[in-house]
Amino acid sequence: MSPRKEFILAAEDVCKTFDGFKAISNLNFYMDEGELRTVIGPNGAGKTTFLDLITGRTKPDTGSILFGAPGVDLIRKSEYEIYRLGIGRKFQTPTVYTDHTVFENLLLSLEGSRGVFNALSSRVTPAQRDRIHEILKTIGLSARVGAKAGSLAHGQKQWLEIGMLLAQNARLLLVDEPAAGMTDEETVKTGELLLSLAGRHSIIVIEHDMVFVRQIATRVTVLHQGTILCEGTVDEVQGNERVIEVYLGRKAKH
Amino acid sequence: MYKTFSKRELLAAFLLGLLAIVVVPSLNAYTPEASFFHISDFAINLWGKYLCYAVLAITVDLLWGYTGLLSLGQSLYFSLGGYMMGMYLMRMIGSLGQYHMPIPDFLVFLGWTSLPAFWKPFNSFPFALMMVILLPGALAFVFGFLAFRSRIRGVYFSILTQALTYAAWLLFFRNNILMGGNNGFTDFKFMLGHDLRTGPTQRGLYTASAIFLLLVYLGCKWLTGTKLGKVQRAIRDSENRVLFSGYAAANYKLFIFVLASVIAGLAGALYVPQVGIINPGQMATGKSLEAIVWVAVGGRGTLVGPIIGAIFVNALESWATRAYPDYWPIMLGGMLLLVVLFLPRGLVGLAEHALALFKRARRGPAAPGEVASDTSPAVNHAPAK
Question: Domain A7-96+170-248 belongs to what topology?
């Protein structure tokens, strides 16, 4: 029997209410180190709130979210502390530094000191340069290294943002709707990129596009009304009665 | 990849610095008054004032143009620096005031016969200079710490900075804080043993202002090129990404805010002995807004823009308030509208645009996109090294 892998993320009994609306209720979510997990669910299912909770953007009312082993509770940490633990987040709309070049975007994301006074004397080392070029190759933007990020195409911005998470050497990547607004070709390339990263990084992808989900997903979690409806392979999930109900709005049988 | 100075920029800064620091004062000092090249004491004094305003404008831009923090209270820090210098200058009047008492006139008027304790250390110039730096710096630190920690951003931050200025304005009007009330401090006579009412002293202050402006310009040029400068602009463009890249954005904003306020305070301290007065009017909310207009007109997000804007708008004001005093507010408002509607990058943007058009015309129908991307070859006549 192979030793059980450590959980990279373990959320237990997490609840979050906004003005009486239960965005997340009694959520239990476990994920293995190195796993590529896709989270799907209808609008308002709590997907983005879930990411907000992990990254410290909002705080849950109850419950715990443990990261890594032995398990650091993320609830008490601020955003930048959570980043420093090795959690990186890609936002739904591409969020890059539009006025900086692609190179500078990655440079600012590289792991290393984040202090104000260190930033005054910081220099670019050859090692950093190499690392940036390596990442550029991975995300396929080597040719645009000197371009301003604001001038990139939508899909390229999304890749750049994923590259920025790689630069910070995140153990856990949270990727919110990477395929939104992409062409089919870009979507396929994005899927390949994410698959190539799985294993070395643990990745949570939130997505709507089922073609894309089928391309990347090994394991799918379905969220509904802030709680987990079911988990399984794409086929299992798509065949699940309750999932069909939720997505197609069919009434439950009494 | 952290940008240092380009040769062209350094040369321009050197030449303009030489003009402002050496040539202009020399023309004032060593040419006969009748000469065409003579620069009058009045002009020197006026330009000294403009240069202090230019420094204030740079601090506004450091916050607004580079960090995305629209501070509507930058004149507060400028005034506080001015007040601290003013306290020293008041002490230097000695017994030469109207009442021939060894304490400032307004204190005599308020019924004081001896100096209040907090006034005493201001006999010392080094102490006053220290306070010029400390008071604006400490206020900015406390205010900034609370505001940035509470994640106050955007328009809410702007409103708070304005509210703070307004509160300080009301406070300084009060006689019982013993800071001169609505008349403030005036009738200065000596500074470091030099008579402020003479040409050479004013020339010295002008030169100090010019040197200070050059230092601030070079310092900011360096700062915005460091990693800190890059983080600064990253905060402006996407604060969320900065936070999720592990930067404590609040610390960066606090650093810039305190730095900008200290520089503004020093500019105010140079300004006061040149205009000979400091009163609460200098920290009225309108004064801070004027500084915003200078930056907008000159071109925000650049370091030359605020300098050009401050000098241009103030020179225009000096002229217009004499020639068409009734129309100056309309002209100022009209200018702001024009800039907001048609010149988002101010005069600097206009100049760059004109340069690009000129280059295109000279080169003939160039490939599209070429104009926007490079600005060097047509301007750079010197052989590249």
Answer: Rossmann fold (3.40.50)
